[in-house]
Specification:
With about 325 residues, the chain is of the alpha/beta class. It is built from twelve helices and 13 strands. The longest helix has 22 residues.
């Protein structure tokens, strides 16, 4: 019976991945959660998963736990997400130092590691489109730096014999998350959404496809060193997505008065940069410039069904309406 440690299990991606992993009755799963995690966040998994309270910033406790326990597989999803108000020290501990400790443990104990990175290693707006393994890395914010550095650590250990797979999700959508897709719904609903008068193409990730990718890489033999960008198979036009949201909420497309010249977004981004607001710099970039990826090897090597963004985005809209 494979013993699996799953970090980040109480989060959006981790919880959905746990639901996929428990479908295999042979898996024995231990979930790492932060102390004082709201029991409601993990209640649906409580009879199928064992939980251990460890904050990834608590490096000594993490080391002690790993030294006392062995696993066949570690699926490492836990991290401080981008845009949070945490200090750089906490980001470093949770995202880099904890990853290094987990990866070193996997190497020493011949444990398979499945690591959740991010397309953010290419920057918020990649230097080439579609972004691929050959695309230059950009540490345009500290969260992206932590993912680039963590990948470097894992890649170095792979050369020493570590068995590891790296999965890079794009911005993920589905029920239960309050990130970028939810914010789009909110802006459209409140009639605050503006889009540039230019073609902007984006590529999102369906949460169900992402969870299946993690579960498959954990439960099946996958070549060590494999890296997969997981996203919907095709990029979509931002205005098409916004119009779809607007029709679902207001019964009509976005008014033409809210389609404005691109330079307005450029000025807003520069102002946010001057004010040193990483989160607003990112938001203005995400709705004014294109970002999409080469996912051809992902769909060739992983058994993922084609996911069409507009066919599945209703889950986000319904979640927004309910909440």
């Amino acid at each position: 019976m494979p013993k699996i440690l799953l970090t980040g299990i109480s989060g959006f991606v981790g919880k959905e991945t746990a639901k996929e992993l428990v479908k295999n009755p042979e898996n024995s799963i231990v979930g790492l959660i932060r102390p004082n995690t709201n029991p409601k966040r993990i209640s649906e998994l409580s009879d199928k998963v064992s939980f251990v309270e460890i904050n990834l910033c608590d490096i000594n406790k993490l080391k002690s736990y790993l030294n006392a326990n062995n696993f066949d597989i570690i699926v490492h999803i836990g991290a401080i997400r981008g845009g949070r108000p945490d200090s750089k020290d906490k980001y470093y501990l949770a995202n880099i130092e904890a990853t290094s400790i987990i990866a070193q443990h996997c190497l020493s104990n011949k444990t398979k590691l499945v690591y959740c990175s991010s397309v953010g290693v290419f920057g918020a707006i990649p230097k080439e489109l579609p972004a691929s393994e050959s695309t230059p890395r950009q540490d345009d914010n500290y969260y992206h730096f932590t993912k680039i550095r963590s990948e470097e650590i894992i890649n170095d250990l792979i050369t020493q014999g570590l068995s590891a797979i790296i999965i890079r999700p794009a911005i993920t959508y589905g029920q239960g998350d309050y990130g970028f897709p939810y914010t789009l719904c909110k802006l459209v609903d409140k009639k605050l959404m503006l889009v540039p008068r230019r073609q902007v193409k984006i590529q999102l990730t369906n949460i169900h496809s992402l969870a299946k990718a993690f579960a498959f890489c954990a439960n099946n033999p996958v070549k060590s060193g494999s890296k997969y960008i997981v996203a919907d198979q095709e990029a979509i036009s931002l205005i098409d997505l916004v119009n779809y949201i607007s029709k679902e909420i207001h019964g009509k497309a976005l008014p033409k008065s809210r389609i404005i010249p691109y330079f307005c977004f450029s000025w807003a981004r520069k102002l946010a940069s001057i004010l040193k607001s990483e989160i607003f710099v990112s938001r203005f970039e995400l709705i004014s410039q294109s970002w999409y990826y080469d996912v051809s090897n992902t769909y060739q090597e992983l058994p993922l069904e084609k996911s069409d963004t507009l066919d599945n985005f209703h889950e986000v809209i319904e979640f927004y309406k309910e909440s």
